[in-house]
Amino acid sequence: MSVVTNTTTIGAIELPSRRNTELLLLGFAVLIPMFAYANVGLAINDTLPPGMVLYGLGLGALAGIAHLIVRRYAKYADPLLLPLATLLNGLGLVLIWRLDQSGRLQNLAKKSFGTFSPSAPRQMMYTALAIALFAAVLLILKDHRVLQRFTYISMAGALVLLILPVVPGLGADVFGAKIWISVGGFSIQPGEFAKIVIAIFFAGYLMVKRDALALASRRFMGLYLPRGRDLGPILMIWAMSLLVLVFENDLGTSLLFFGMFVIMLYVATERTSWIVIGLLMSVGGAVVVGTFASHVQARVNAWLDPFACYATSGACEQVGQSIMSFGSGGVLGAGWGQGNSDLIGFAANSDFIFSTVGEELGLAGVMAFLLLYGLIIERGVRTALAARDPFGKLFAIGLSGAFALQIFVVAGGVMGLIPLTGMTMPFLASGGSSVLANWILIAILIRISDTARRPAPAPAPSPDSEMTQVVRPS
């Protein structure tokens, strides 16, 4: 005798979206900057700042809009990326407002330009515009794999963005670096957007060519050296980074582009030789350009010994003031609003805003900010690991690598670890181009993570599998 049982097909199990977790973290990401804002007001004026509630409501409204967009159009996205970006952006607004209260900076602006214009309200406007772009990316970009179609178009677009600052009548020379364009009274830094556009080209190109770059090589002294014709891509990117360094005097963008390509090349091929070749080429190019470019020489001299040329070079004075800011901060810092990083001058709220963190929050605050940045990078790398398509993997690792390199070159420059690059600290520094580009970067990572974490659709039911007879002996 036998027993016949009927079984039916079971659909895919619904995974948690983690949107409520994201909403809870966003609450903390808004409250922490509000407490910091109150702390600055109490330290400077012995009273709560009058705009604290309005600031909190504005930041909360922007975070709420971004959350609703993610909840509706990227349901399974990583729940940490949006709160981390919101927290850093909110604390950046507090740091910029704190520097706006400096009497030294106000007098310096009046002496140089005849009037003082606070940067915090303008930065809040840029943040609102950045959230709008964040929402637009998630609304328009339904699938990141669509960008693969624009591999070579993106290369052309990146080249155009890099060339614009050196076009006569359009580019602007700011403190020796030609990285800005002026349009209708507004200044834009195209290089911030070029890092995203060129990552599309790198991901699309390496996805197609990775086998040739990885397998066709010769072994020499433990390293797999590529064929001469396979060196073409890296030579082209190396030459482009040198041209940026020569014509725009922009060391940061040059390091960012070449470093991002080497990282993506290593991930695509798993060949350590590419890292060695990339480092040798970057050092060689920096030595050659540093020998002839006076702007780069000044920054190298300021890095080697800022106090030797403190009285004669603006770069040396800025680096020296920055080092003293970090030194006077100690472990716990002087406290919000009680430092003197405004002595650095106009760069205090852009290139050197991290010096304010070092002086007023100390080593503990610096490590906390670096941990927040590290979490964004870690979630980006995790997104790359979880992506199901090679283009998404390379694109996510490229964006995460670019973000990590920018943190390194900015923090390393203001701390004296490497020569000053002139780039801005993501989300913290004053500047519309930086905050716009980095919110677009976060939106793309959220889109890739949503695609990677979204459960696969249940297979269509087959008539043969609707009911299966299982015969068991009695």
UniProtKB/TrEMBL annotation:
Keyword Transport recorded: no
UniProt xrefs under InterPro entries: FtsW/RodA (IPR001182)
Chain coiled-coil ranges: none
Broad class of where this protein is predominantly found: membrane
Keyword match Cell division: yes
Region feature (Disordered): 453-474
Name of a matching Pfam family: FTSW_RODA_SPOVE
Gene Ontology BP annotations: cell division
Membrane topology of this protein: Multi-pass membrane protein
Position of the signal peptide: none
Entry's transmembrane regions: 23-44, 50-69, 81-99, 123-141, 153-172, 192-208, 228-245, 251-268, 275-296, 352-373, 394-418, 424-446
Keyword annotations of the record: Cell cycle, Cell division, Cell shape, Membrane, Transmembrane, Transmembrane helix
Compartment(s) of residence: Membrane
PANTHER family for the chain: CELL CYCLE PROTEIN, PEPTIDOGLYCAN GLYCOSYLTRANSFERASE RODA
Protein name stated in the entry: Cell division protein FtsW
Source organism: Streptomyces nojiriensis
Lineage summary: Bacteria, Bacillati, Actinomycetota, Actinomycetes, Kitasatosporales
